[in-house]
Prior knowledge:
The chain is mainly alpha-helical. The chain has helices at residues 16-31, 33-37, 59-67, 69-81, 94-104, 109-123, 129-138, 140-158. It has a domain at 58-158. 54% of the residues lie in helices and 0% in strands. The chain starts with 15 loop residues before the first helix and ends in a 22-residue tail after the last helix.
Amino acid sequence: MDQNQAPVKSSGPIDHTDMQDWMERFNGALSKSGEHIHEKSPEDSREWNSSFFGCLDPIDTCLITYCVPCVTFGKTHHRTRKDASMTGYEAINTSCLIFLGSMMVGLHWIPQSLQRMEIRRKYHLQGSCLTDIATACCCAICDLVQQEKETEFREKELAGQGGAVQYAGGDNMAYAPQKA
């Protein structure tokens, strides 16, 4: 290829930027494995909004995750790392294919744990590296559903649409006088 030509972006599910991002994440986790394994969330971190065993609600997310878990994994990745509004999302994407490949050799827990760790960091949630690995190994479906529900909730919260925003009353508010 001529050096003056711009690189050709391939059409299809493989995004070379995502591939590079995943390689950097894997390499970072491997090079600092001692740090990550002992990492815990700060004392002031928040609880997860979504229950780990709440994976049956909503049922459509549960069924999709049960049948094609890589789609839910890729969806969560897109929401947290690319675009919270899901603009440009396609069900079959680089993260989906990476997860599918790792599932085929029994290593799904690696990208799944990395993604859970990043969700914890991004939204300041409770947990630890060992918890991330255990949830991915013990019940991958529940973990994937929890990650998807949590990121959807937290992104809405960040956008000011979530349920965590509380009412702040004005200083001059008072009860109306009661009639006798």
